[in-house]
Amino acid sequence: MSLLKRIEAGTGPLTPVDTAARGEEVGFRKPVIPPARDAFQELKTRVQNKLIAELDPKMDLSRRDQVRRTIEELFNTILEQEDITVTRVERLRLFDLIVAEILGYGPIEPLLQDDSITEIMVNGPKKVYIEQKGKIFKTDIVFEDDAHVMRIIDRIISPLGRRCDESSPMVDARLPDGSRVNAVIPPVSLEGPTLTVRKFARKPLTTDDLISFGTITPEMVEFFKACVEARLNIVVSGGTGSGKTTTLNVLSGFIPADERIVTIEDAAELQLRQEHWVRMEARKPNIEGKGEITQRDLVINALRMRPDRIVVGEVRGKEALDMLQAMNTGHDGSLTTLHSNSPRDTLSRLETMVLMAGFDLPVKAIREQVSRAIDLVIHQERLKDGSRKVVMVTEVQGMEGDVIVLQDVFVFEQTGIENGRILGRLRPTGIRPKFVEKFEVANIYLPPNIFGVTERLFR
To answer: Which of 212, 260, 351, 375 is deepest in the core (most CB within 10 A)?
Structure first.
């Protein structure tokens, strides 16, 4: 009887010849039969169901080490009782899969543990993709069915008090390590439950990491540090996956430790190192449609919390107006991110979002607010080779008539391509920004070559 038939019938142990069908036992004859993925999946389901039935329902799953030991004892007992013989490799694999289902996030748990993977994309139960080094690859990982994917989605969002069902088929959430999660389910998603995880590094990236990645240059680190310490209002712009939040984390690291920081996010993902840090997160409405707290509500409330700095994870709606007013009424040194294609588009999107607040304001009045509030736009892009780089650092100089005047201070210049990698460097344009006067007031000194000039700028 074949391996699949015996497991389906529940008779007979796995033998070395059976496991050789997967090529995992060196030295055994490899039969000419297809891999028994379905058979192994059924074995896992059978053992897993028996194990869960044996577990104490009142067990504290937060005590992971103790629970893992208990699972291991039950696992070994069940294999003996069922007279199931598997190779050491398959035994370990079976145990890890079951532990992942009980304590982790099921089939994607190994992907979450792999630091080289930056994004996980589940397009229904049978298609799982990953992003590594800026490139997308399909994996051989699969879920059992739509219900299996839904269980993992629910496990992610339940601790956050969020829900995802037919009445609310889209949800944003986060993992305990801050990784960003988005889920879309039918009827909106036609591929079945879809899950996207934007992973964050276990250890927050530092300026040295961004320099080694080629995202910024050492001169830029010195310049950005001066901008933050001089309390410039900075917007980090870019497309999806361009590294805006990572750069925002690095910029926030330059905020002095003796200042009070209030962060406002739709889904908390910032990783600040300062001690005096108050985190606030927006809340979706409950099942009755009540209890919603928007980012705009949080921005307004933050102004009453005596902040030295306000950091908004991402501006995407009506809160833009309140943020601009805060920047123009003494809360300088604020930081935020925004989706856009260029520094000019960044300001255009801000205008649009201010209009979304519902006030009938003249466009010129809005532009004046924007030009007075924002000092610097740092624009990032994910290039064709998958690398993420700061490609423009642009000063907002003010208004000329009805137009906001922008001036590029640094621009990325591509010099070539080598082994598929884009070569280039962020070079100064040779223009001294107007806000250097704030550096002088803050007693900050920069070497003259940062802006591509020879004379000394500050003393």
So the answer is: 375
